[in-house]
Amino acid sequence: MNLSTKEMILTSLFTALTAIGAFLSIPIGDVPITLQSMFVILSGLLLGPKLGALSQIVYVLLGLSGVRIFAGFSGGPQTIFKPSFGFLIGFIFAGYIVGRIAHNKKSINFRQILLATIIGTFVIYLFGVPYMYLILNNILDTPISFSMALKTGFIIFLPGDILKAILSSLVALKIYSRINAAHL
Known about the structure:
This protein is mainly alpha-helical. The protein has one domain: Orthogonal Bundle (Arp2/3 complex 21 kDa subunit ARPC3). It has helices spanning about 5-25, 35-45, 50-65, 85-100, 110-140, 145-155, 160-180. Helix 5 crosses helix 7 (about 160-180).
């Protein structure tokens, strides 16, 4: 994949924003509340599917290489064994899927953006909750039912994530209108 300088800068920007979102966290249980998902969604909305996913791939690879950019100032290959790592995998797919949905037409409207953000949010959960369940039960030897995993990894976060999805959609719509007005 050949990237222009502009694309490299924008991809790096969303990698950095996702890292900053990890540091703005409220630790509750095994998975903290952060602003990461908002920046993941925005990466797909504003960069499109390939660059949105790439920004999240770079984020995850930096964290796995030892840079402490994950929530709780963690990083390194051992992070794979944390219950929250599945959500990080979901970030990559969410960045791509949100970008694919939002950029499949010539003009973008609020309904299309909001649909993309909600689907992207659920994609993160689709990877995160089962991974959390498997890690807790099979690696950390902390027996938990799948319904409890849904409650602690999904339900308690849903109101905040819906709010972040709406906020992401409004921000993206505002940025799209500015880009269109400037003919960029």
